[in-house]
Amino acid sequence: MSKWILIGISLLGLVYNVILMWRKMKEIRALPETEFGCSGEELWQSQKKHFWFNFIGPGIIANFFDTLGIGSFAPTSTMFKVAKSCDDILVPGTLNVGDTVPVCVEAAAFFGLVDMDILTLVTMIVASVLGSYLMAGIVSKFDRKHVRYALFVGLMILSIVMLARWAGWGPFKLEGTEMGLRGVKLIVAIVVNFILGGLMSIGVGLYAPCMALCVLLGLDAKCAFPAMMGSCAFLMAYGNGPKFIKEGRYDMNACWAMALGGGVIGVPIAAWIVGSMPTHILTLMVVIVCFITSLLYLKDGIQKGSEA
Questions:
Q1: How many other β-carbons are positioned within 10 Å of the β-carbon of residue 113?
Q2: CA 280 to chain centre
Q3: Structural domain of residue 157, as residue ranges?
Q4: Comparing C-alpha atoms, which of 233, 225, 208, 210 is closest to residue 279?
Q5: Is the residue at 123 inside a domain?
């Protein structure tokens, strides 16, 4: 029953954001002039020519890999830049608004596919949402450069430990088999996910660290998917997404393309693959994702420093 409630909340968030997008689209298209020096209808038509590229690239392809736990923001940003299919100033809002629907579909799919302990799942999700809300003002003052370097080191260490666990080296077990946590392990999961939710405020992705957290605490690797996707879905559906929509700082056409391409095609295909993948292989995939993500944090720390 509890899992169906979570699925319902995810789908409600999806519908809520679609309604907000539709209403804001009509409002913007009716404007006689926008900040871009053209009418709202002219802005819509200029964005419309990139619809099919954004449907296939940022929509289907990026959200396919997002469902595998690799993330969609980085590849989507790259596609936007290379194809010039989204104005740079609208990229942050477009990433959050456009991916809200696919991420809600991801969460709903994995709530149903993975038989994870409901107490563990709900407390981790609630912790991440509270962390995002309560820590936003604090973590937004952090120096991004040092956060990125710290995450590079942390994820690199986690990757090595998980690889040792996967291979059965030394004192490590082959892989986690638990579907839920209790006691100290549950407290650790709640505290860490609270922090990860807070770090979302400065653009630090939750996926890879949450995957590592679940595996290292002994959970079955498949449990990482409802935990991380549920956390992000609720954050985006009821937090970041509506805020960007209200401000109108997003590409209308690109968001519809991403919502349709990812939510209808990319996510369901990837969810089926993950759901049928052997845990041993899935655990190795988590190790690879965390290793790659650690290198991306290092790259951003060197190239961008403290820039957003």
A1: 16
A2: 23
A3: 2-303
A4: 225
A5: yes
* Nearest CA-CA partner of 63 in 73, 53, 50: 73
Q: With respect to residue 131, please indicate whether it lies within any of the assigned structural domains.
A: yes
DSSP string, 168-220: T-TT--S---BS---HHHHHHHHHHHHHHHHHGGGT--SHHHHHHHHHHTTB-
Look at residues 137, 102, 132 and name the one whose alpha carbon lies nearest to residue 229.
102
Domain annotation covers residue 308: no
Give me the helices (H) in 115-143, please.
Answer: 118-134, 136-139
pLDDT tens digits, 170-226? 555 556 678 899 999 999 999 999 988 877 766 566 777 888 888 888 888 788 889
* Rounded distance between C-alpha atoms, residue 70 and residue 89, angstroms: 25
Alpha carbon distance 99, 65 (integer Å): 12
Domain count, the chain: 1
Q: The tokens of 38 are what?
A: 């053209």
From the list 181, 186, 182, 179, the residue with the least C-alpha distance to 115 is 179
Residue 186 covered by a domain: yes
pLDDT at residue 101, rounded to an integer = 92
